[in-house]
TrEMBL record:
CDD domains: NMNAT. Residues 7-187 form the Cytidyltransferase-like domain. It catalyses: nicotinate beta-D-ribonucleotide + ATP + H(+) = deamido-NAD(+) + diphosphate. Its EC number is 2.7.7.18. Catalyzes the reversible adenylation of nicotinate mononucleotide (NaMN) to nicotinic acid adenine dinucleotide (NaAD). It is an enzyme of class 2 (transferase). This is Probable nicotinate-nucleotide adenylyltransferase. PANTHER family: NICOTINATE-NUCLEOTIDE ADENYLYLTRANSFERASE-RELATED (PTHR39321), PHOSPHOPANTETHEINE ADENYLYLTRANSFERASE (PTHR39321:SF3). The gene is nadD.
């Protein structure tokens, strides 16, 4: 049997505990041996990151240095075109073959915006979606047709993620972490402490590089 390959995409400007902790807990809950963190270069639907690709990569490396669960994939970082998840997952599927279970991990806010993603319906042809809880976002989709789409694909069995190659949406029971990169950037700009929100090595790097001092938020 092929093991489930889990991908966690993001802008990570910067990486924080709201990214790391839910995914570590998820890995324990559903039995993931490895999670591939995949930073994008050109996020498709949001303002461009303040930190450069090299700086975001450096922060990710510091954050996961002592966490063997995680490793980094740089395929999106190397592309200068928008990092469309549908295209990236199509490429993963071609490499891994039709049988291998693949899952893309997102937070609850990303699920709500998901129907606006480029070719979103094709994403489930190649992958499952695993959704981590995030405070401040409803669990129901705004439009009825998107809610129906969600319900058609929902599974309550983590086992499905391991046995089927793609096509399921799993709402994971991970705890809430009320942390966002936006909040961290704002707090850093205001010289407020962020020690509880991200790894010390990442915070040290931010200070060394003088990042997020003039926030564009
Ligand atoms: N606190 C959190 N809890 C659960 N999921 C999260 C949390 N923060 C981010 N995520 C998820 O991690 C992925 C990458 O998020 P991203 O790098 O955009 O972080 P962010 O904190 O949302 O950033 P920003 O505030 O700059 O928009 C997304 O799928 C997002 O939903
Ligand atoms: O493909 C898209 O249209 C698309 C739209 C929004 C977000 N994504 C991806 O979803 C992941 C989380 O995005 P973000 O902006 O919350 O960091 C990241 O890998 C993005 O590249 C992808």
């Amino acid at each position: 049997m092929h093991s489930l390959q889990a991908l966690f995409g993001g802008t990570f400007d910067p990486i924080h505990y709201g990214h790391l902790k839910p995914v570590e807990i998820l890995a324990n809950q559903i039995g993931l041996q490895r999670v591939t963190i995949m930073p994008n270069n050109v996020p498709p639907h949001r303002p461009q990151p303040e930190a450069s690709a090299a700086q975001r990569k450096a922060m990710l490396e510091l954050a996961i240095a002592d966490k063997p669960l995680f490793h980094l994939d740089e395929r999106e970082l190397r592309r200068n075109s928008p990092s469309y998840t549908a295209q990236t997952l199509q490429a993963w599927r071609s490499e891994q073959g039709p049988e291998r279970p693949l899952a893309f991990i997102i937070g609850q806010d990303s699920l709500l915006s998901f129907p606006g993603w480029y070719q979103y319906q094709t994403i489930l042809d190649n992958s499952h979606l695993i959704v981590c809880r995030r405070p401040g976002y409803p669990l129901a989709m705004k439009e009825e047709q998107h809610q129906q789409w969600l319900e058609q694909h929902l599974t309550y069995q983590a086992e499905d993620l391991h046995t089927l190659p793609a096509g399921k949406i799993y709402l994971a029971e991970t705890p809430w972490f009320d942390i966002s990169a936006t909040l961290i950037r704002q707090r850093l700009q205001q010289r407020l402490p962020c020690d509880e929100m991200l790894p010390a090595a990442v915070l040290h790097y931010i200070q060394q590089q003088g990042l997020y001092q003039k926030s564009s938020n």
